[in-house]
Amino acid sequence: MSGEPTPPLARSTLDRAAHRRTDREWLAQAWLRARVLVLDSARDGRALVRDGTNPPALVLRDAVELGPMGESVRLFLGVEPDGVPVFAVDAPLPELPGTREASLREVGHLLADRDAGLFTTALALVNWHLGHGWSPRTGHRTEVDEGGWSRVDAQGHRAWPRTDPAMIVLVHDGVDGLDGRCLLGNNATWPRTAGERRYSCLAGFVEPGESAEAAVLREVREEVGIAVERIVYAGSQSWPFPGSLMLGFLAEADPGAPVRLDPAEIAYARWFTRREIGAVLAGRPVDVGGGDRMILPPASSIALFLIHRWLDGHC
Q: Residue 59: which of 10, 11, 146, 122 has the closest Cα?
């Protein structure tokens, strides 16, 4: 809907030109005039961004400049509005004056729509290829095909990039104003940082035979023992770490109901007021016990997008 806020990694302007993926002759000619995004999977999928621009700008290079780097697997991303094809390659990042390395987590929310879409798509493709060098059907080696959008073995068995659906939900009490509360958790598997404790929305993968809404009900019940209602879809975004689609929801629950943690999943969970969340976002400390202050999810995550939706009253 026009005017609605958009999750930070759900933005793109590129024409993916899917009909070109099977045209090998066209792809070969397109490479000669292409712009290329270089990602380095050995460095957390980092790319180069140009310093001193607002917003930060991805560095895309002309294919003819890449030299041996251009012999890497070429992933066709699409065609720009000016007709120039765009590819990505997984290769070591060059040293270029006026640039720095950055991960999608660090800069995804800061990039313009075009760059956010390019970075997200390229990283998702690179991560899929890294994990699918062998056919799950035959066990045989696979090769890249269709401009990077499939892999095929010698017997012709083909696999396409997969995206695993996951739900993420901001549970709240339905109360307006500063005293309204939301329920956030600290995942038991997250690394510990002295003096800090991250709290985020509850999330989990959608299981076979399950709707996204049913996954919301199940995951919240399993992780914190709370029943939710009034589940409202809020948006989705890719999370290519390595290959998820995060389906975002808001849902209501009774803050008087006892919180019962699954210790294998959630180390801590508690209700926070809008006043407390606003304080954290403003850089003021909120004590969560044990000498720790609260921190929130990274700005490129849909979790923080959902928290802002609730904080601003878009429930």
A: 122
The predicted model scores a pTM of: 0.93
What is the C-alpha separation between 315 and 311, in angstroms, rounded?
9
Chain mean position to CA 279 = 26
Q: pLDDT digit string (tens) for 185-218?
A: 999 999 999 999 999 999 999 999 999 999 999 9
Provide the token pair at 299: 């700005």
Instruction: Determine the pLDDT at residue 302.
Output: 98
Tokens of 102: 């950055």
Range 213-238 average pLDDT: 98
Of 8, 5, 77, 3, give the one whose Cα is nearest residue 302: 8
Structural domains in the chain plus CATH codes: 18-130 (3.90.79), 164-311 (3.90.79.10)
Radius of gyration (C-alpha) of the chain in whole angstroms: 22
Strands (E), the chain: 35-39, 47-50, 57-58, 60-62, 75-79, 85-90, 99-102, 142-145, 150-153, 158-159, 164-172, 181-187, 196-198, 202-205, 229-239, 244-252, 266-273, 293-295
